[in-house]
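quick q for whoever's on today - can somebody do inverse folding on this one?? i tried earlier but teh output was garbage lol. tokens:
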């Protein structure tokens, strides 16, 4: 069976915000992404609102035919925003103000109680819960204990190794082992971060992974591929 594809559209908002106007519009793009066959739309509402804004989340969430996977930090304010917008899925992620992107998985040990309480709230509201973690058996065990329904394995390390043509077999084995263990203890397994065509082909072989969440590469590749069509349109206008 084909694994599900969640598309992170944060960087559509990054591009839009560069001009402070409405183009490209994340909502329009979300509809196109789903029409093309993706299964869900991922957005990360960051504390600094550097890409997706509250208004984007509100507009996206108001269309209940869009399955939204909302990524948030383990923060009470974010929990309130999430409860107001009622996304289909929630993924708790670590967040550092100065990072360019989500650099690693959650520190579950340190934030045990906070995360457990947040998961309980979303589970009660029938919002699918997930924790973004590094491939670690200990963190998978703890994810289950804390009450998460899913885990998302951070694939940043293996993605970099593959891109840099380094040996990735040890990391792949680790991810496979973690995915198998997670599935065996009743967690649904997702994966994401830094993935491109090659990484996806490799990780797609791990049968326990049911969903991939991919963002930056898809947006970059879409710009690269789409530009010829746009230029042709301008040439037609200029004739
Ligand atoms: N999954 C999670 C939990 C993320 O936070 C992100 C963005 O950092 C992604 C997937 C997508 O990563 P990328 O944009 O590198 O594909």
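ok took a stab at it. sequence:
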């Amino acid at each position: 069976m084909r694994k599900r594809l969640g598309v992170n559209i944060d960087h559509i908002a990054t591009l839009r915000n560069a001009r402070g106007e409405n183009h490209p519009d994340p909502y329009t793009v979300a509809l196109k992404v789903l029409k093309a066959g993706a299964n869900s739309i991922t957005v990360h509402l960051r504390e600094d609102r550097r890409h997706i804004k509250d208004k984007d989340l509100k507009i996206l969430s108001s269309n209940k035919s869009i399955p939204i996977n909302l990524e948030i930090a383990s923060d009470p304010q974010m929990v309130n925003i999430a409860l107001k917008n009622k996304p289909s899925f929630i993924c708790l992620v670590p967040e550092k103000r100065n990072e360019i992107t989500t650099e690693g998985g959650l520190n579950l040990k340190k934030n045990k109680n906070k995360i457990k309480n947040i998961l309980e709230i979303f589970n009660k509201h029938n919002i699918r819960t997930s924790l973004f973690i590094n491939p670690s058996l200990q963190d998978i065990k703890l994810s289950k204990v804390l009450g998460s329904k899913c885990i998302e394995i951070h694939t940043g390390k293996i993605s970099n190794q593959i891109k840099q043509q380094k040996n990735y077999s040890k990391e792949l084995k680790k991810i496979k082992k973690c995915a198998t263990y997670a599935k065996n203890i009743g967690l649904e397994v997702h994966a994401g971060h830094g993935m491109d065509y090659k990484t996806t082909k490799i990780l797609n072989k791990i049968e326990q992974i049911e969903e991939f969440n991919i963002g930056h590469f898809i947006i970059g590749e879409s710009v690269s591929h789409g530009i010829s069509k746009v230029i042709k349109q301008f040439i037609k206008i200029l004739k």
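fwiw The pocket of pyridoxine-5'-phosphate is lined by residues 8, 44, 71, 91, 93, 101-102, 132, 152, 192-195, 213-217 (CB under 6 Å). also The two ends are 48 Å apart (CA to CA). so keep that in mind when u check it
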